[in-house]
Specification:
746 residues, mainly beta, Maltoporin, Chain A, 5-stranded mixed beta sheet, 38 strands, 5% helix
Length: 746
């Protein structure tokens, strides 16, 4: 019903272009400001621009903390989410697969990798950011390509000549210490350079969760009357202990060593078959995930004429990861255990983008056209061992190359006070994946050798959007867009059929309408949308599969209100209804006994004879039954989350900020059946004071001031049987904590 209403509004918007309003304004000119929302070329989309002034007010926040203050973005954090590491951004409600359904970009260059290793936000210092562009929905797929299904976030940085020399020192709870600096220099009238660095270490909220990292970035800028260029060289190093999950609903003896109710802070110590929690073995080896990354990027912006720019960007990145995961039975006295896993992965990526940006007039109507192409090449090599220094048991060798052409045009219609945009992209992707297994190596006796896959696919993206002025304060906007994404390597490794890399490409279509209102005291933006996906890649009982289709409907609202000269209120509201519209799960039929308990074979939902299947899934005790997913909600998607904030000016130099964030309850990962206990809803209140006096700046704050005990990620047991029903692994998040920071601008 909502989709039909949105389509009707889109049609009415098209016809309304023929009628003029009283207020005349040319929205796009050849000199359009880079700060303009419409400079993206995606008129009709729900886009937010976060300015550098707003970023400055967010002292001691990382990028993910800033982003989740705006509608349409949910953030899930593991291991306390330090610097945004192990945090997942979810746009449009994609749950488990959310990290693969949005794009994070730096100056238009993709930061998402072929794997699911996460994005390094720490290597983007806040002081170097000029603005952040949040593009909700899939219209950005025409410009940026595969993965921009839920949306895209583009971080635009300053030139070296625009940054100040700054040093910041910070100390906080759990022995958290950090130092970051930025320094710049002019080499001549046309050339400037910048060096920025950061080092941070913390014990974190959880035991055996220590984290430290070092980042450094060198930037060189050159510009004259018609030529701009940049060169970025960066290096990052991260070491992190993984404290693992705690357990709720445990029914077996070894769960006594990991119960959330006994401790929220200690690490997960694996299986320990003790009947007394006091006897739990705490000598299991620490899990860890370390990463070293180096990249170089460069670009040219050539102004051929007053109305034509040519933009060229090239980049190369190399990432090396090492991770160890201890099996339940691991302990220091019996290392290694046959179930231990040590992984070494190298990922290399190179990108090239060439864009022609042309501004022109057609019958007094201004038009901006972006026409360009992208090339991307990624290689992935991963060696799997039982332990460090052991023999290789399994090797994954994969590569993915893509080539794309796109065009995005925006036309201003001043006589109708409207703007229209349209875009199209075609992208070809070649994937190769191979896998070799040595079953003679300990820990790999039962490993599956994936069949080699070499495949080529082609996908298209499309968008059309409109915006219209109703009066001097009010604008309406609407868009229709189609987008796509190709599977990443981690999804292919755990694909539907054991021993197969095969997954289909995912496609989506979306329609959205919204309204913007702005006057001297109020800035409001709101929209409603409807999205359908086909071949959606979803996590399903320890494997990944294509589910067809899934629908989403939602509301996004953001506002800023100046109550008085010294008091400002702001907030956001996000509602999303993500549900399966087809698909089914098979109930287990084959059984086996283990320690007197009956289990059901295969990647199936609860066995047809179990009490769980009979009571919750409608089983009639006959074999070969299936459970329909139609109408079920997508796990890990909170239907509602909102934020309310207030800013108080104490004087011209000092400001106090109070922030309340609420996240609704949601189904746990691996619970497509929607029968497990939900992740509880929660609210968190943060407060902060900032002050500046000449070159000296100061900030201090308390997060989670009411000491809320909460978590935002949990996964149900992969054993789908009666004894494991309700058993979940959860990752408790940080309780009340504080920080203090000093900065000096030279």
């Amino acid at each position: 019903m909502l989709k039909r209403l949105l389509i009707t509004f889109l049609f009415l918007s098209l016809t309304s272009i023929a009628h003029a309003a009283d207020t005349k304004e040319i929205w796009i000119t050849p000199e359009a400001s880079d700060y303009s929302r419409l400079a993206t070329g995606l008129a009709g989309s729900n886009i937010t621009i976060i300015s550098s002034d707003e970023i400055v007010k967010s002292a001691e926040k990382d990028i993910t903390e800033i982003l989740k203050s705006y509608s349409g973005i949910q953030v899930r954090s593991l291991y306390s989410g330090i610097d945004g590491i192990n945090s997942t951004i979810d746009m449009r409600g994609f749950g488990e697969a959310s990290s693969s359904n949005f794009l994070m970009l730096l100056n238009g260059r993709k930061l998402n990798d072929l794997d699911m290793g996460g994005i390094n936000f720490s290597n983007i210092p806040l002081s170097s950011i000029d603005r952040i562009e949040i593009i909700r929905g899939n219209s950005a797929g025409t410009i940026y390509g595969s993965g921009a299904v839920g949306g895209a976030i583009n971080i635009v940085t300053k030139d070296s000549s625009e940054v100040s020399d700054i040093i910041n020192l910070s100390y906080g709870s759990y022995n958290s210490m950090s130092v970051d600096f930025t320094t710049s220099a002019s080499l001549d009238e046309s050339t400037s350079m910048m060096i920025t660095g950061k080092t941070k270490e913390t014990d974190t909220y959880r035991e055996s969760g220590d984290y430290d990292r070092d980042d450094i970035l060198f930037r060189l800028n050159h510009k004259n009357n018609n030529f701009k260029s940049y060169l970025d060289i960066s290096s990052s190093s991260k070491n992190q202990l993984l404290s693992g999950p705690r357990v709720i609903g445990g029914v077996y003896a070894y769960h006594l060593c990991n119960l959330l109710s006994s401790s929220r802070t200690v690490k997960h110590v694996g299986g320990d078959y003790e009947t007394n929690a006091d006897n739990c073995n705490s000598t299991q080896r620490d899990d860890y995930a370390n990463e070293d990354s180096n990249s170089i990027a460069g670009g040219l912006n050539i102004a051929q004429t007053e109305t034509r720019n040519i933009l060229l960007d090239v980049s190369a990145k190399s990432k090396e990861q090492k991770a160890f995961y201890a099996a339940n039975g691991n302990n220091l006295s019996s290392n290694p255990n046959s179930g231990d896993s040590f992984i070494e992965t190298t990922l290399d990526n190179s990108q090239l983008s060439l864009v022609l940006d042309e501004s022109m007039f057609i019958d007094n109507n201004s038009m901006v056209i972006k026409f360009g192409g992208d090339l991307s090449s990624t290689s992935y090599d991963s060696n799997r061992y039982n332990f460090e220094g052991g023999s290789v048991g399994q090797v994954y060798d994969a590569s993915q190359d893509s080539q794309a052409l796109f065009i995005q045009a925006s036309l201003s219609l001043p006589e109708q006070d409207a703007i229209m945009s349209i875009g199209f992209r075609t992208e070809n992707t070649d994937f190769y994946g191979a896998d070799t297994v040595d079953t003679n190596i300990s820990g790999f006796a039962y490993a599956t050798d994936h069949a080699t896959l070499s495949t080529s696919t082609n996908n298209n993206a499309f968008n059309i959007g409109f915006e219209k002025i109703l009066d001097t304060n009010t604008k309406i906007f609407t868009k229709y867009a189609e987008s796509f994404r190709t599977p990443n390597i981690d999804e292919r490794i755990k694909s539907t059929t054991s021993g197969s890399f095969v997954l289909n490409d995912q496609t989506s279509e979306e329609i959205e309408i919204g309204l913007r209102y702005e006057n001297a005291t109020l800035n409001f933006s709101g929209s409603i949308y409807s999205m359908d996906t086909e071949n959606e890649i979803q996590y399903d009982q320890s494997k990944n599969t294509n589910l067809d289709p899934i629908s989403r409907e939602g509301i996004n609202i953001d506002f800023n209100y100046r109550a008085t000269d010294t008091v400002r209120l702001n907030g956001s509201y996000n509602y999303v209804d993500a549900e399966f519209t087809s698909g089914s799960l098979s109930m287990g039929t084959g059984t086996y006994l283990y320690f007197g308990t009956r289990y059901y074979n295969g990647n199936e939902t609860y066995g047809y004879l179990t009490n769980t299947a009979i009571n919750y899934l409608g089983s009639d005790s006959s074999a070969n039954q299936s459970f329909s997913l139609i109408g079920n909600k997508v796990p890990l998607v909170a239907p509602v989350n909102f934020r309310l904030g207030a800013e108080f000016d104490i004087d011209s130099k000092t400001m106090v900020l109070i922030d309340l964030q609420y996240v609704d309850e949601k189904y746990v990962s691996n619970d497509q059946e929607n029968i497990e206990p939900k992740i509880p809803d929660y609210y968190v209140v943060n407060t902060k004071v900032t002050s500046s006096n000449g070159p000296l700046s100061f900030s201090a704050g308390v997060s989670n001031i009411f000491n809320k005990k909460y978590y935002d990620f949990a996964v149900s047991s992969t054993f789908h049987d009666d004894p494991h029903f309700g058993t979940q692994s959860v990752y408790p998040l940080v309780e009340r904590n504080a920080f203090i920071s000093l900065g000096y601008t030279f």
